[in-house]
Amino acid sequence: MTAAPAFPGTHICVVGNAGSGKSHVARSLADCLGLRCIDRDALVWGPDWTPLPRSERLAAFDQATRQGGWTYDGHLRATRPEEQLVLNRCDAVVWLDLPRWQVMWSVTQRTLRRVMRRQPLWNGNIETWRMVFSREFSIGWAWRMHSRLQREYEALARQPCTRRLTRLRSRTEVRRWLDATCGGGARA
Prior knowledge:
49% helix, 8 helices
């Protein structure tokens, strides 16, 4: 279901499993289209991995997506009002639907690199060795959620709506789509 590349819009959600390349695609689109890039995890995770209270999330997501053009790197889960707000405000969804093995390879490499380099993430957070082996963080989460996210995004794709959906199933499709959309200026 990869659509012919066209101007994707000015409110673009990039979704997929951890390790699928959401951040890269969202940043690349933001750069080439002159949009802001909104990272879901930067909104949700405060310093020292303190989650933003659920009662404050809707307001934070509202503020982040209220004005101007943007790309959004994150999830669009039906059970989360803040993510449904983002979905309702977007005019395009780019779904990175990569195979589990590819996602796991990427998320494992990325997580190990971040831990070994003590690379600061959103709000100064640093992934730890304990997180590497946790079911709730990157590697364990990506494995556990892969099939579930596919089902949820397939259901989203079946919903009648006016927003454009682009489903990309390989790194090659992602690279070609970005090149066509951004005039060859982006690399997957």
